[in-house]
């Protein structure tokens, strides 16, 4: 069952781990990539309802993950999870969910739930799987009502790396049926891990870059001590204003260093705050692999992969920062650049996991920026 904090109940069929969990209930419109979505650190604190009905049909494997331990809190789908049919599958999704202690719920009216979120915003709720069919409704409702919500919550510290490490793995090759390796670095990039996805790091490594990943709490002195040619601010979960309490002073010092900086998702929002702008909680957020974004610098429209519940307030950006990308759904800010410093950022996920690959050019743009300031 799914029990929302306002008392609304959706009854269905449980799968995955037999337990309950509380979080923000959000929907994702992607047709593929459910494994990447469930393991995206940006989904920490959230239960994901998929609008596409056929989830689990390609099974699960050990390759299509964005982090080792899934940070999401559960999965909601329309149709029962069937036996997989895919040559890369090594495990049933139900077994994969159990192995990560994640509860799942199938058989509910996901269209009704999606409309509920669209009309009223992303609610707090409890997803519960009890094989004996016994639920303590008053206790579960109390737990849902007591959960504080994501606004004001710093989750980057929960998902960030605990120690600095090197990354040299590049993108998947179907010819080799595996990931590549960057062997001859031509530049150094330090990635600040607010909840980095592995495929973002792979896209940085494909730039012939030696990638050093540091914790979200790293100081500017520690980051600059690696002598980077460029600095990357990763994606991540939670309220950017909460994470910004320690991240903004660090990023301001990095800006003063003059090093090229590229931010994605939470990194985009932290950069906004460091430059003097503001962010706010969205009504329901953007989550899916089919969001149209217009690049105002070229006039082109790209179909993007997105996952964010907070947004940059365009009017709050200073005069020396210009908006470069906007959502064609709601005109919200999807990217900006500094007019005199080597700094740019986007709200969406150009690494395309799950796809599409329209936005891969942004990594090449970062490499060009590094080359211009070498």
Summarize the structure.
The protein has 374 residues and is of the alpha/beta class.
List the helices and strands and how they pair.
Layout: E1 2-4, E2 9-10, E3 13-16, E4 20-28, H1 34-38, E5 46-50, E6 74-76, H2 93-99, E7 103-106, H3 110-120, E8 124-128, H4 137-146, H5 156-159, E9 165-167, E10 169-173, E11 178-181, E12 187-193, H6 198-205, E13 209-215, H7 220-224, E14 230-233, H8 240-257, E15 261-264, H9 266-274, E16 279-295, E17 301-312, E18 321-327, E19 333-338, E20 343-346, H10 361-372
CATH C-level of the largest domain: Alpha Beta
The portion of residues assigned to helices is 10-25%
The total tally of domains equals 2
User: What global shape is seen?
Assistant: globular
The CATH architecture of the largest domain is: 3-Layer(aba) Sandwich
Strand portion = 25-35%
Structural category is alpha/beta
- Helical stretch tally: 10
**What is the spatial order of strands in the main beta sheet?**
9-13-12-14-15-20-19-18-16-17
The strand count comes to 20
Radius of gyration equals 20 Å
CATH topology of the largest domain: the name is Rossmann fold
* Secondary-structure element series: EEEEHEEHEHEHHEEEEHEHEHEHEEEEEH
Distance between the termini: 56 Å
Report the biggest beta sheet as strand number plus sense, adding barrel if it closes.
10 strands, mixed
Uncertain stretches of 5 or more adjacent residues? none
How would you state the average pLDDT, rounded?
97
* CATH H-level superfamily of the largest domain: Class I glutamine amidotransferase (GATase) domain
């Amino acid at each position: 069952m799914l029990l929302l904090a306002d008392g609304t109940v959706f009854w269905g069929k449980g799968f995955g781990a037999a337990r309950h969990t509380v979080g923000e209930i959000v929907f994702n419109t992607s047709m593929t990539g459910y494994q990447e979505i469930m393991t995206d650190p940006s989904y920490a604190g959230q239960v994901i309802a998929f609008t596409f009905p056929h989830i689990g049909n390609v099974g699960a494997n050990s390759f299509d993950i964005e982090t080792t331990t899934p940070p999401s809190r559960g999965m909601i789908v329309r149709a029962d999870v069937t036996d997989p049919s895919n040559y890369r599958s090594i495990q049933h999704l139900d077994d994969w969910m159990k192995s990560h202690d994640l509860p799942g719920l199938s058989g509910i009216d996901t269209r009704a739930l999606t409309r509920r979120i669209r009309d009223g915003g992303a609610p707090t709720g409890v997803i519960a799987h009890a094989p004996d069919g016994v639920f303590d409704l008053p206790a579960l409702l109390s737990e849902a009502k007591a959960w504080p919500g994501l606004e004001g919550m710093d989750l980057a510290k929960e998902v960030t790396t605990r120690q600095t490490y090197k990354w040299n793995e590049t993108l998947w090759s179907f010819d080799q049926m595996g990931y590549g390796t960057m062997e001859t670095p031509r530049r150094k990039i330090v990635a600040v891990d607010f909840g980095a996805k592995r495929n973002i790091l792979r896209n940085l490594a494909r730039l012939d870059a030696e990638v050093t990943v540091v914790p979200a709490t790293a100081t500017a002195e520690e980051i600059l001590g690696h002598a980077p040619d460029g600095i990357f601010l990763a994606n991540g979960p939670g309220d950017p204003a909460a994470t910004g309490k320690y991240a903004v002073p660090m990023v301001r010092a990095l800006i003063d260093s003059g090093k090229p900086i590229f931010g994605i998702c939470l990194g985009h929002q932290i950069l906004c705050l460091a430059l003097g702008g503001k962010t706010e909680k969205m009504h329901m957020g953007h989550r899916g692999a089919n969001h149209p974004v217009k690049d105002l610098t070229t006039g082109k429209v790209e179909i993007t992969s997105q996952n964010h519940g907070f947004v940059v307030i365009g009017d709050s950006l200073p005069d020396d920062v210009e908006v470069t990308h906007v959502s064609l759904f709601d005109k919200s800010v999807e990217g900006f650049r500094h007019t005199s410093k080597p700094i740019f950022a986007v709200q969406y996920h150009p690494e395309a996991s799950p796809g599409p690959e329209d936005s891969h050019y942004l990594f090449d743009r970062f490499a060009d920026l590094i080359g211009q300031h070498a």
